[in-house]
Design goal:
By secondary structure, the chain is α+β, with helices and mostly antiparallel strands. 15% of the residues lie in helices and 33% in strands. The protein is built from ten helices and 35 strands.
């Protein structure tokens, strides 16, 4: 069957995409069962907790979602007896839920909580009080008996200040606590300090680190963590004495890959020590690899399906729970038996049909400042083909962050386009993680320059290779990715259309509304205010909206606190004033990221119709 690219019929409807991709938020061994967090798009993106026995452990309307540092994470945990501890999205208090009963509050009303960790019956958490002046954050222990629900003095506070905290970890004997902290003047992937407290003595030591992540105790005196003094996040160990003082760091790994990622959320785990001395760790170089590190340092790669944004969620004996994305299956949770090599799917993880979704091809393109990494998804359909000589339209995807990365994962959201005859190029522009510190730092002081040059180079490279119709390449991005979309359209010449989801349009407006976690982020990406104000004006797409001469689709969440609607509405008004073809959609109830199935469906259908109108094809019903 021959029909134009973009018009192929597809089983990947917007509704099926919305239903097929719930977000996974961690997994735990709970007695003989396995529990995991999962979003429910049909319920507005509510985050529930499910069990491998088929039960839903967190009933509606309760939702496990943290807002600490705005992006949250670590919003639930559970003990071996099946008691669930979670942060409720509605009020940010921690609750305890026992089967057959109603949730019971464990913390007072007011502050937000996240980064929950349960160790030997002791519940640790990160607390954030944005009503305090200045805002205060703390590492705390929460009594599990509910005694602190109305009495804040019953909470045990280990450290409190205007710094940011993550990853609290108790030593096995409970005498020491380690965590990661950083000043808001630097982002945690730039500079983060390891801290070690001798609890009874009340002392805290801070051995020299560069960008520390995830401390874990292998014994009462041995602490392991990830750090990147070499330019790659590697595992390190330190001996710690009774006072909390630590000896010099000793690298445990020296691979050309990262065991770590940008610390946007509090719940990620990139490695886990096992009781027998082995360590299971993720190693990222574009895609992820999971490896087992023996006590003598010998390393063996695991043959597992997940190879993108993998989290080592839990261990029990020689069993390991992994969650993440995959280039060959749907996202999911897997249980790996290290000794036998057995792998079982806990949830998700269905193999993809390569007739509809062939594997992404990793590519490198010369961006002028070095290689630019991307993953290309060519149009694919088991029976359809395009007329001879026709080149396919493409959409260049730009991830948010901008300190983040994509991994070449299979997804129904990408198949929604490729199965219709629209190619996708997912770009890890300079500034992305997953390729080491030097690649990540390309964007320092150069946001709106390096990212824009890299996505343009990627698009032109695709066209020059004869893989895409140069007249029909669009660009699509969310948040910081939306900024790059608008900035690239201002540059002109590479893209025939742009789709911006809650994208940044004006840097001064972004700096004015920045929440605490990102208060100084833009200063590192562009320059400090007020000294760099002229640069903020010059780089902002809003300043140069008159240069945009192609159609633009703008989509925005009404309740977005990270990039508020005023950003999208400002660029909308500027486009209207200059007579630029544009569409604007505001979604009530949505924040920074679309979670409701209704919104996801509408956004995808609007994008497809928009591309069809601009590129001259009629999408199949």
């Amino acid at each position: 069957m021959s029909s134009p690219f973009g018009s192929w019929s597809s089983p990947f409807t917007a509704a099926s995409v919305a239903a097929s991709a719930p977000r996974i938020d961690g997994a735990r061994f709970v007695g003989s069962a396995i529990w995991w967090g999962e979003s429910v798009p049909a319920e507005g993106g509510r985050m529930t907790v499910r069990s491998s026995d088929g039960s839903e452990m967190l009933p509606a309307p309760w939702s496990a979602r943290s807002r600490v540092h705005e992006y949250g994470g670590g919003a639930w945990t559970a003990d071996a007896d099946g008691i669930l501890y979670f942060v409720h999205a509605g009020d940010q208090r921690i609750y305890r839920l026992t089967a057959g009963s109603e949730p019971r509050a464990l913390t007072p009303a007011g502050p937000a909580h996240g980064g929950l960790r349960l160790q030997d019956g002791r519940l640790l958490a990160i607390r954030e009080d944005l009503d305090a002046v200045p805002p205060l954050r703390a590492v705390i222990e929460v009594p599990v008996d509910g005694s602190a629900a109305d009495d804040p003095t019953a909470l045990r506070t280990f450290v409190e200040s205007d710094l940011f905290f993550a990853h609290p970890a108790l030593s096995p004997d409970g005498s020491r606590l380690a965590w990661v902290e950083w000043s808001g003047e630097r982002m945690p992937w730039q500079s983060a300090q390891l801290a070690i407290a001798a609890i009874d003595e009340g002392t805290v030591t801070r051995p020299e680190t560069r960008a520390a992540l995830q401390p874990e105790w292998r014994s009462d005196t041995e602490l392991v963590y990830s750090d990147d003094p070499s330019g790659r996040w590697q595992l390190h160990r330190r001996e710690v004495d009774r006072s909390g003082a630590a000896q010099a760091a000793e690298p445990l790994t020296t691979t050309d890959a990262d065991t770590g990622y940008g610390l946007w959320v509090l719940g990620n785990r990139w490695y886990r020590p096992l009781a027998d001395g082995r360590t299971v760790a993720v190693r990222t170089n574009g895609r992820d690899e999971v490896a087992v590190i023996a006590p003598d340092g010998a390393t063996t790669a695991l043959d597992v399906p997940c190879d993108g944004h993998v989290s080592v969620d839990d261990v029990s004996g020689s069993r390991v729970l992994l969650s993440g994305n995959s280039s060959s299956t749907a996202p999911g949770v897997w249980c790996v038996e290290l000794d036998s090599g057995g792998i079982s799917v806990v949830t998700g993880g269905a193999p993809v049909d390569t007739g509809w979704m062939p594997p992404a091809q990793p590519i490198e393109i010369d961006g002028g400042r070095g290689a630019v990494h991307a993953f290309a998804y060519a149009p694919a359909h088991p029976t359809a083909s395009a007329p001879t000589g026709e080149l396919p339209p493409y959409v260049v995807f730009v991830h948010g962050g901008p300190t983040a990365h994509v991994t070449g994962a299979a997804s129904a959201a990408i198949a929604f386009y490729t199965s219709r005859g629209i190619g996708v190029l997912d770009v890890n522009y300079g500034g992305s993680t997953g390729y080491g510190r030097a690649y990540r730092e390309r964007l320092d002081g150069a946001w709106g320059v390096v990212d824009v040059a890299d996505v343009i180079a990627a698009a032109r490279g695709l066209a020059d290779a004869g893989l895409a119709d140069p007249r029909r390449i669009a660009i699509r991005g969310s948040s910081a990715g939306g900024w790059t979309v608008l900035s690239a359209l201002v540059r002109g010449g590479a893209f025939a259309a742009g789709i911006s989801r809650y994208g940044v349009a004006d840097l001064r407006m972004l700096a004015e509304h920045a929440h605490g976690f990102e208060e100084h982020y833009v200063a590192g990406l562009v320059g400090p205010l007020p000294a760099a104000e002229e640069l903020y004006v010059e780089r902002s797409p809003l300043t140069h909206a008159d240069r945009i001469d192609v159609p633009v689709l703008l989509m925005q969440g009404e309740d977005d606190r990270v990039v508020p609607p005023s950003q999208s509405e400002a660029i909308r008004d500027a486009l209207a004033a200059h007579g630029v073809d544009h569409e604007y959609v505001l979604y009530p109830g949505e924040g920074h990221g679309f979670r409701s199935a209704t919104t996801i469906v509408d956004a995808l259908e609007r994008e497809l119709a928009f591309l069809g109108r601009v590129f001259g094809f009629t999408p199949a019903r």
